[in-house]
UniProtKB/TrEMBL annotation:
Keywords: DNA-binding, Transcription, Transcription regulation. GO terms for cellular component: cytosol. InterPro entries: HTH-type_LysR_regulators, LysR_HTH_N, LysR_subst-bd, WH-like_DNA-bd_sf, WH_DNA-bd_sf. The keyword DNA-binding applies. Residues 3-60 form the HTH lysR-type domain. It holds the Pfam family LysR_substrate. PANTHER family: HTH-TYPE TRANSCRIPTIONAL REGULATOR YBHD (PTHR30419), LYSR FAMILY TRANSCRIPTIONAL REGULATOR (PTHR30419:SF2). This is LysR family transcriptional regulator.
């Protein structure tokens, strides 16, 4: 039986994407070639791993066991390669960075450009996730470094300040609140809202404060990205509460007015860098942490 690591990596991608076509795009391989790889893997193991249908793929019972083992083996191989590279004296290898959307939109492009200039032999494997999932990935050792808006550091993680990213209220220029210099949460929730994905840190924060104030949230539409949120606001479907980073990126034109949210939890919003607590870290991981937490870059 011959099973190569690349086939396992492709199998993992197919399961995570739920589609051979999407996995092929993610892995930069032709769908037909990926499909052959999976078929060869099934032939080598001697059992079907996937149920294929026009809508995508699902794991068989055997496939569920194979997926768990494949992830474990793939992680061990990655760890081995990175540890050996670290021992070579060079700062090289792959660093798994998980970050929330506001970090990616507002801060990471410049920091990662600086990092790549200093450490050209290091590849950053960047994954966008909501803050809770970022923390979970760090705790599960699926991420070497994470960036989130979570203010609580669980046991087993180290955390450092990354960037301040206070909340803004964005709205069309003709909106009733557009002339305000600052807005309270109570003033904002009097109007229909364009909300961001359920489960994210901003969604949770808004729901918690609405519940504490015993005021309902009138959500006109829910979207999954800051750019979509700002487009809906621009179209007049409601007003939105977004981080300053997202407001600068997607609501900077004359079609928007941006007003600070004058609540301690809004003006004091901050992003943090997290990493699994270890006695020693790989050189590439520590180098990335140093770049991220250094205000001067």
């Amino acid at each position: 039986m011959r099973i190569d690591p690349y086939s396992l990596e492709l199998f993992i991608s197919v399961v995570e994407e739920g589609s051979i076509a999407r996995a092929a795009s993610r892995s930069h391989i032709a769908p037909s070639a990926l499909s052959r790889r999976i078929a060869d893997l099934e032939a080598a193991i001697g059992v079907a791993l996937l149920i294929r249908s026009p809508s995508g793929v699902q794991l068989t019972e055997a496939g569920q066991h194979a997926y768990a083992s494949a992830r474990s083996i793939h992680g061990q191989l990655e760890s081995m390669a990175r540890e050996v590279q670290s021992l070579s004296g060079q700062i090289a290898g792959v660093v798994r960075l998980h970050a929330n959307a506001s970090a990616i939109v507002g801060f990471l492009p410049e920091r990662l450009t600086l990092f790549k200039a200093r450490y050209p032999l290091v590849r950053i494997a960047l994954t966008e996730q909501i803050s809770d999932e970022v923390m979970r990935a760090c705790l599960d050792d699926r991420a070497d470094v994470g960036i989130s808006a979570s203010t609580k550091t669980p046991a087993g993680l180290d955390s450092w300040r990354f960037a301040d990213d206070p909340l803004m209220v964005v709205m069309p220029p003709a909106h009733e609140l557009a002339q305000a210099e600052g807005l309270s949460f109570a003033e904002v929730v009097r109007f229909p809202l364009v909300a961001l994905q359920a489960g994210g840190s901003l969604d949770q924060t808004m729901k918690e404060h609405a519940e504490a104030a015993r005021v309902p949230l009138e959500v006109s539409v829910t979207v999954n990205s800051f750019d979509a949120q700002c487009r809906m606001v621009e179209a007049g479907l409601g007003i939105g509460i977004v981080p300053t980073s997202a407001a600068s990126a997607f609501a900077g034109s004359r079609n928007f007015v941006r007003v600070p949210l004058r609540e301690s939890w809004g003006s004091g919003r901050r992003l943090y860098v997290h990493a699994p607590r270890k006695s020693t870290r790989l050189k590439a991981v520590q180098a990335l942490i140093d770049i991220l937490v250094d205000d001067k870059g």
